[in-house]
Amino acid sequence: MRLPVFSLLYHTACSVSRRHLLFLPKGSIIRLLRQRIKTSSGGPSMEVSTKKAFAGALLAIVINSFISTFLSMILRTGVDSSVVTTYRFFLVSLVMLPMAFSRKSYRENLHSISSRVWVLFLIYCFTKAGGFILWAEGLRLGAPAFTMTTLSNMQPIFVVVLLYVLFREKTSLRSLGGIFVCLIGVTIIGVDNVSSLGSAAAMIVIVIDCVCNALNNIFGRRVRQTMELIPMMGISYFLAGIISLVYALIQGASFYIPKEAILPLLGVSLICTLIGHSLNIWSLKYIKSVTVSVLSLLSPFCTAISAYFLLGEVPKPIVFLGAAFMIAGLLLYQRAEVKAAHEKAEAKQ
Asked: By the number of CB atoms within 10 A of the CB, which of 21, 68, 223, 253 ranks highest?
């Protein structure tokens, strides 16, 4: 909380003796006031960054809601899922990798990274590649775009469990309540659509994909605390592309892309991956990985809209009931997190 103006002046005056205050250079009092504002409020830049991170994560959800739709359009042309993933990563790498080494500050940042963080970064790259491949594989096995997106939102459960198992990081009961309400909405939508999965294999793939994405969020947040955004994006996309390429070669997949698949491939690569996933990576520095996972619970609703216009998949009325639960749970979670942050700030004072 910001201090009132008069209280702010009082605390500033108390920090400097009267004798020294008389001899302060012109403009120093203003600098002292600004310093006091930053100290008392926990830093306005931190607050602004958190708000921007929430906005960025929400924008990423809207952009990423087109992933399943674009992938379905590509896979219908007969392109292998591992090949799609390989092209996605390398197309983004063409843009991001040169930028990762373009500045001296980026190179210095990479030199300063500890070996422990590099290990976490490699795990992050493997889980990123695995998540992308499994997502496309689930769609290839017959899961509709909307159903795939909905059932993949079991991810917050795995994030909460894995955070505790790996790092003993706990989530408050109030936040868990919001997650639970969100998952009720996911269940309402998912139960009605689970029969359309096509096979039990698709369900297994979705669950494993959830684990990969949960690990990706968890390790991505820890890497993001020390690694700059641009180097992290450029190198991670390139390494994940190599992993996907090796997998595609082992599968003996063909790398031919039909003409009708080019535009959806560019869309899923340069819009969804470059912009959408990069926004997620950026936001992980300012908000918790659990929060990012909970925000992603809104993605089925966005996917339903994109699937309707691009694939002709018409959502049922029950979708709107499930979406209402998901939005309510999201609001409860966000309120619980804000309250917890205020309590933590007050405890430090």
From this structure: 68
